[in-house]
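Notes taken during the Thursday session

The instructor put the following on the board and asked us to keep it in front of us for the whole hour. The protein is Acyl carrier protein. We were told not to look anything up and to reason only from what is written here. First, the residues (89 in total):
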Amino acid sequence: MENLEAELKRLIIDIFELENITPVDIASETPLFGAGLGLDSIDALELGVALKKKYNIHIDTHASGLAEHFASVKNLAGFVVSQQENKSI
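Then, after some discussion, the predicted structure tokens were revealed:
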């Protein structure tokens, strides 16, 4: 899971062009939105598209709990793993 979290941190840094930030600077529990990394709803859409492309997962935008899945890198990693597991069943 740590490798996936590091990969997600790198993805976030790359797609949002976060200058002077490395994956080490982002704690896995840091909120991605608001006071954390400061991402907004448009960023959430962009992040969702990037996750779909990179991990070939389905994201149901109407699913309950979606905001919680996108709350932190740790939560995102758990979400990606669960979506990949659901595909293999």
